[in-house]
Structures are given as structure tokens and as C-alpha cells.
Prior knowledge:
- It comes from Acaryochloris thomasi RCC1774.
- Helices cover about 40% and strands about 20% of the residues.
- It is an alpha/beta fold.
- It has one domain (about 5-180): P-loop containing nucleotide triphosphate hydrolases (Rossmann fold, 3-Layer(aba) Sandwich), CATH 3.40.50.300.
- The strands form 2 sheets. Strands 2-7-1-8-9 form a 5-stranded parallel β-sheet, sandwiched between helices. The protein has a 4-stranded mixed β-sheet with strand order 4-3-6-5.
- Strand 5 (about 70-75) and strand 6 (about 75-80) form a beta hairpin.
Amino acid sequence: MSGLLVVLTGPSGVGKGTLLQALLQRHPDIYVSVSATTRSPRPGEVDGQHYYFWTPEKFQAMIAAGAFFEWAQFAGNFYGTPRAPVMQRVAQGQRVILEIELEGARQVRKTAPDAFQIFILPPSVEELERRIRDRGQDDEGAIARRLARAKVELAAADEFDLQIMNDDLPTALSALESALLGSQ
């Protein structure tokens, strides 16, 4: 099996995490990249499993060395995808998925133009809003910001190699499996 670098993105609430979880249950050999951050670990988070928890100095040294596929600063902390562990797994023949936001996907397109980029679409903006509301995690202001951001992200869907509509989980999972494993 040849290795493959895959970027998976889509708006908040579209079901990327649910799709990825279902994919990994069926294909545990697929590797999801671990991001690095300068924020402190939350209860239960394990270094190297949930994130690599780095000091700001180490993170900035890695930026200077060009060691990230993509990185950003958000709410006073840095977040990024280290290149070395991902490329090591791709070289070993693994399929590696980067689940990242739109801006990160655009950065990866520049730093790894051969990456296969997949955008997950909701069936409608109304359904996306329902899913965000049903999670019960956000107040009205946060929901409005997520939906405004989602509209910007949805407008970029045609930048991607493949768009998968997540209107039915088994159907969307089958499309994702075909895209990632169809050439095996």
C-alpha cells in the first residue's frame, strides 16, 4: 500500500469528527495527525496523543525551521501540524489524515501540493445550524459566529479535490472510504 496524505476539512458542526471516528473504527491502520499547541493540557489530555504540548519558544523555533505543514495563532496560543511525524508515516505506506480548518488546508496546499484534499459539506445551512444547536455547546453569539464562518468556508468547497455531502452517515462514510482506500 502506498502512503497518502489527506486533508479533511469542512465547517464546524458538519460531522468531520463523527465521520473520522467511524472511519477509524473500520480502518484502525489509518493515522490521524497529532497537532502541536502552546496551550496547557486540559484534564485527561495526554501529550503526544491529543496534542503535542510545547512551549511558545519551541513552537516558534519550529516555525522558523519550517517544520509545520500549517500553523496559526488563536486566542493567544499557537496551533500547528508538525511535518516530520506525518511524513514518516506516509513514507511507511500509511494513509494519514489531517483534520484541520480551511486556512490550514490552504497552507497545506502550498507546503504539500500532492495532498488529497476533501471537504465535508452539510446538506444545508439550516441543517448545519440544527446540528450546532443540538450539540448544546454554544450561546447565540457563538452560534451566529460559527454560521457566518461556515458560509465563508462553504464558498471555498470547490477549492478541494473532493466534496462529500454528510447528509447520511453510512453514505458519507462509504464515499470517504472509497476516496481513501479505493486504490488499494
